[in-house]
Design goal:
Elements (H helix, E strand, L loop, with lengths): L4 H36 L3 H28 L1 H9 L6 H15 L2 H16 L3 H26 L1 H27 L4 H30 L6 H26 L3 H15 L1
Helix pairs in contact: 1-2, 1-4, 1-5, 2-4, 2-5, 2-8, 2-10, 3-4, 4-7, 5-7, 6-7, 8-9
């Protein structure tokens, strides 16, 4: 790998950890007590419903976050890090890693909910063996991808391994519980993906015409990023309203409003 590759990966991972901590860890932690209670009482239908709604809420938040990070990765890294020895090349290399890390953001977030579900079922050993399998996939893909993609190949290997890990845990959980409404999850994730795609196309065009090859700097770049993000949020929410808001999102919003009233 070229000199600086470790730093490129480190800075890119720091940016990925922000939405993971904001959404993945928060939601995964919040549903764990409820899942544990339902498992102890053997309330399997509410248990399945809780898992499905948590996954819908997570994907509603993290799929557009991943799309947004992919689109604005270069100006974002430029604004946060490009100064001193961190030059334009460093920005481009870090942005490449960030884009590949973003591909697996939704899977890593979903994984945290599924781990909580397995712990509630007293099945921690399942997550361990699934993690071993994901580690093997990660190592193999890293060896295969590091040649053509360099340090970005390592980021892509992490994302693919995370997706494989999440899908395996979901498949095993579905078998354990006799189904977890896979069709509903697929439909609602498809809605989020389509809305995110529309958002990404629009924001990419806005960014392409206003970023001006990196000549937008300082406060103007921060203002531009704020406008692109705000536009992306509005476009995504508008598309979701037209396509249909996932039930898990509606229930989470209703619960939040009820808690404020109480």
């Amino acid at each position: 790998l070229t000199v600086g590759s470790i730093s490129y990966l480190y800075y890119a991972e720091r940016l990925i950890q922000f939405p993971l901590g904001l959404f993945g860890s928060a939601i995964g932690t919040s549903v764990l007590p409820q899942l544990t209670r339902q498992s102890a009482l053997q309330e399997w239908q509410p248990f399945r419903q809780q898992v499905v709604e948590a996954m819908e809420l997570l994907w509603f938040l993290t799929i557009p976050a991943a799309a947004g990070l992919w689109v604005i990765r270069i100006p974002l890294v430029h604004l946060l890090f490009q100064r001193g020895e961190f030059n334009e090349i460093s920005t481009r290399m870090t942005a490449e890693a960030l884009g590949y890390f973003a591909l697996g953001l939704w899977a890593v977030a979903g994984f945290r909910v599924l781990v909580g579900a397995w712990y509630a079922l007293d099945g921690a050993y399942v997550t361990v063996w699934a993690g071993v399998g994901a580690l093997a996939i990660n190592v193999i893909l890293s060896v295969l991808l590091i040649g053509p993609l360099g340090h970005s190949g390592l980021a892509l290997a992490v994302s693919i391994a995370a997706i494989a890990n999440m899908l395996l845990l979901m498949l095993l959980l579905s078998r354990r519980l006799g189904g977890i409404q896979g069709g509903r999850l697929l439909l609602n994730s498809g809605r989020c993906l389509f809305a995110s795609f529309i958002m990404a196309v629009v924001v990419q065009n806005l960014y392409r015409y206003s970023y001006d090859g990196g000549n937008l700097t300082g406060g103007f770049l921060a203002l531009g990023l704020g406008c692109w993000v705000a536009a992306g949020i509005l476009i995504y929410l508008g598309c979701i309203m037209l396509l249909g808001v996932p039930e898990g999102v509606r229930n989470a919003w209703a619960a939040r409003r009820q808690s404020r009233i109480n």
